[in-house]
Amino acid sequence: MAKEYNFREIEQKWHRLWTERQTYKVVEDEDRKKFYVLNMFPYPSGAGLHVGHPLGYIASDIFARYKRLQGFNVLNPMGYDAYGLPAEQYAIKTGQHPEKTTFANIDRYREQLDKIGFSFDWDREVRTCSPDYYHWTQWAFQKMWGSYFDEELQKAQPIEKLIEKLKQEGRWPADEQAQSDLLMNYRLAFLGETMVNWCPKLGTVLANDEVVEGVSVRGGYPVEQKKMRQWCLRVSAYSQRLLDGLDTIDWSESIKETQRNWIGRSEGTEIEIPYVLSPSGESEGGRFTIFTTRADTMFGVTFFVLAPESELVDKVTTPEQRAAVDEYLKYVKSRTERERMIDHTVTGVFSGAYGINPITGDKCPIYIAEYVLAGYGTGAIMAVPAHDSRDYAFAKHFGLPIIPLVEGADVSEDSYDAKEGIVMNSPVSPDKSVEYDGESLCLNGLTIKEAIAETKRFVEAHKLGRIKVNYRLRDAIFSRQRYWGEPFPVYYKHGIPTMIPEECLPIELPQVEKFLPTETGEPPLGNAQVWAWDEVNRKIVDKALIDEKTVFPIELYTMPGFAGSSAYYLRYMDPHNDKALVSPEAAAYWQNVDLYVGGSEHATGHLIYSRFWNKFLFDLGVSKKEEPFQKLVNQGMIQGRSNFVYRIKETNTFVSFGLKDQYDVTPIHVDVNIVKNDVLDLEAFKAWSPEYATADFILEDGKYVCGWAIEKMSKSMYNVVNPDMIVENYGADTLRLYEMFLGPVEQSKPWDTNGIDGCFRFLKKLWALAQSILNNQSNQSTPTAENLKTLHKLIKKVTADIEAFSYNTSISAFMVAVNELSQQKCTSRDILEPMVILIAPFAPHIAEELWEALGGEGSVCDARWPQYEEKYLVETSVKLGVQFNGKVRFDMLFPADATPEQMIALATSAPEAQKYLDGMQVVKTIAIPKRIVNIVVKPQA
RNA sequence: GCCCAGAUGGUGGAAUUGGUAGACACGAGGGACUUAAAAUCCCUUGGCCAGUGAUGGCCGUACGGGUUCGAUUCCCGUUCCGGGCACCA
Fold first, then answer.
1. Residues 555-614 of A near strand B (Cβ < 7 Å)?
2. Strand B nucleotides with an atom less than 7 Å from a protein beta carbon
3. What is the sign of the dihedral through the CA atoms of A259, A262, A268 and A272?
4. Residue A551 phi/psi, 5° resolution?
5. Among all strands, which nt has the closest C1' to A379 (CA)?
6. Do residues A593 and A626 make contact, with C-beta atoms less than 8 angstroms apart?
7. What's residue A1's pLDDT?
8. CB A43 within 8 A of CB A85
9. How far is the CA of A761 from the C1' of B30 (A)?
10. Taking the model in full, what pTM does it have?
């Protein structure tokens, strides 16, 4: 009597045994090659996991288990990104300490994760909010404070080295405040007075990637620009290395491209422009610098433009224009960032001054206009209306001349921005090009690319400017005006920021009564009473003791979300080390993450910060690899599939989907959990909400059919599917299989519980096959050639598919193989055993159970992945379609080792071929062994 | 506007990178077993046409061209959907 597939019993049993036997504990082992698999750790939200969350975890768990079966020592850890805004906002609303809600959520996550059967080593769990973890976040911050970026070495160096250099150069001030201010310009973590994204509603500043289209990503509140003193990380120093590193890692092209855009390297030229305060030029002005990527267009410059925020504005404004300029600056100030971003109306004002084009000698008016940004390049541009659409619009508006410089370019309606074509009018006549050391610039006849290179050479040779690389990447604002984050290990000694000694870390987050800013507008940490630094006793003391001599105030800001998530992968290597972030031995063994799985929405946030952070730690020698994540897989989002019922307006009658067009109806979201295959469970619907208890239905074919739509998975759309429910009804193995079977991991796709039966059936078939083999008393039975062929085909396919991260196709291959073996009435344990190992990464519970039944050693996790042998796959003959003129006409068998000549001979002599050859002559023949036979014929002349 | 990635049955998706398109699964239809239901098993299932029939023919991978004996795959153009960047000079 064959045992039923009782997944509940099996899964509970193995969860217990895995814990008891510590099956997933990982220790460093020099004798085995390492493999590091990592998921982006989750923020434990109050809503718990829905069915979309585990997708990436399952995908990486499969890979981790596969690598382990191949003999690798696999690190596959999990932890929590525990600091975050939702817990804090909940605390503000309810007074509940964020730690309490966060820990409760973590427990709930853990419970849900445990049901799915991951091979995580929970001994290595990290939580960003625990002091022994953020100890090292604070430590890294202090290291950044103590470092600067050496442009020549292109790496971080101790700040002491810079001080030494400054002393030698005689630039080291005596005054302490002045020293502090000077070093602030170099430190990798520094206090900067910068324009920040200030969100009044959230009461905090935000990083660039936390703001989209002028509103906060979290909450969608308006964000304004405000000048504030904030902690910053000099991410921009690493721009070039962040860019170059992308070529060394195995990430998708689209995410690399996103990062390249975000870094925004542009190679251009800075050119010095002298200016005068009147057209005749008698009153001398000074000079300013412009940045351009189109140096070739120097001959087409008809005006210059300064950003309104530029310090030059004041200098170039003539007394006559003063009133107009002030008026304009007032207007610009009144506009929010958002208005400026959306509304591109042409505005600007003439400054009264003229810039002198060093190439042509022409004097061109200098304008002030908001379309030029202060934060990019030099905040000043040369305007070439013929070849830049923004300059073009400006020139048209103010009636300024437009000089075309590219042959055949029509600039009567629009500018010609393309970088293709042959240059002309450069210069219009030889006397329009200024001579330097007997040389004058002429670009006529060159392509634009050649012209750019030639102009660069000319500008450099005659010291008119320099070649300059600009990056769009900004320094990261590193402080937040919040409570629930890492406190800064910094105090203010007579106003000078000073680090709390390294030995005194971690500085623990103080307790507060209220999580809101103080009445005086200080951040929430201002509410903490015990929050002052006693320099002598080296400890945190009551604020009341602040005495201006030895007790000083501590920083009230906290660190942003990305602080804790930037180096967590290093901590997993050595999570309990209280002497270092990671020991040199552990870092040397685990190196970096081999496979990183997570969402692509982190492309310009976490994935940039983390790379920056790691590069810094690499410069320090802490991290052993320059790039933290060698291969990155971005799992797609699981969308919800919502169901609708259709209520006839003003009634409590619902009409089935197919008949709804005959009535005036309102579609209403209905809980997907009471709908199966789009058919509504009427009783469950009535019980769902009191308002539907008395509902009437108009059915079709005796059923109520629901409509559906693909939407985001969310509570309000009643389309959330909870993994617990799936595990309860089908088991974790089925859930794991189905999540992967749904389609490629990288692809976003809707969740549709309807298809899950297929995977469930497959496991039941596998179970039945295994039982029939296990119950076969004569277990002498050796596998047949057919059995072996099926098995080895499967080994080959599954191995290749897992390597390619193509899990859906390997599951299909399993389905085929199990069907084949069942049909073959396979009785061999020699076939079952490798099958069990092959399925183990996908469905670990059933695999363990069968492994035990087969009498396997220990856990199936420690088995060896089977190798396929080509000899079982050899075909003696191959069925191929014989084509005439590219169309398949009939099938025939060919010996597998037939040469092309033999194949042609066999095909042309086949009886079926005769009707295609009759009256024809063979023009050409193509035969590729095991692939194709094609005979090209044409009517005989 | 610029850059990237896509488009295949009723549905999710395959196709050894140029070689018989639609594997596998869901759904649907038909059948077997059963008092019945569940479960299980078998058959059909891209479209159109012809035939009693096994079967045969034509069309078909968003659209229009091209290269090729042969194109879902390569090239050119168009449309649509998704993602990123964006007064970045």
1. 600-601, 603-604
2. 3-5, 11-16, 19-21, 23-28, 39-41, 57, 69-71, 82-89
3. negative
4. -115, 125
5. B89
6. no
7. 41
8. no
9. 22
10. 0.91
User: From the CA of A634, how many Å to the C1' of B70?
Assistant: 37
Distance (Å) from CA A894 to C1' B10? 39
CA of A679 to C1' of B45 (A): 22
- Residue A640 contacts residue A720 (beta carbons within 8 Å): yes
Q: How many residues does chain A have?
A: 941
Q: What tokens appear for A468 in the block?
A: 């300059």
Check the CA dihedral A458-A463-A467-A472 and report its sign: negative
Q: How far is the CA of A809 from the C1' of B22 (A)?
A: 15
CA distance A74 to A56: 17
Task: Report the C-alpha gap between A485 and A563 in whole angstroms.
Answer: 9
**Strand B lies under 7 A from the Cβ of residue A342:** no
A237 DSSP assignment: G
Res A920: pLDDT: 83
Listed in order, strand segments (DSSP E) in A707-849 are: 707-711, 749-750
Cα dist. A904→A879, A882, A921, A937 in Å? Answer: 14, 9, 14, 13
Q: Express as a percent the part of chain A with pLDDT over 70.
A: 98
Closest protein CA to C1' of nucleotide B13, residue: A743
- Give the ipTM: 0.94
Neighbours of A916 (CB within 10 A): 19
A373 touches strand B (CB under 7 A): yes
List pLDDT tens digits, range A74-92. 999 999 999 988 899 889 8
Listed residue (A563, A564, A568, A559) closest to A628, CA to CA? A568
The Cα–Cα gap between A441 and A681 comes to 81
- A197-241 tens-digit pLDDT: 788 888 888 777 777 777 777 777 877 777 788 999 999 999 999
Confidence band of A178 (pLDDT split at 50, 70, 90) = very high
- How many Å from the CA of A800 to C1' of B19? 22
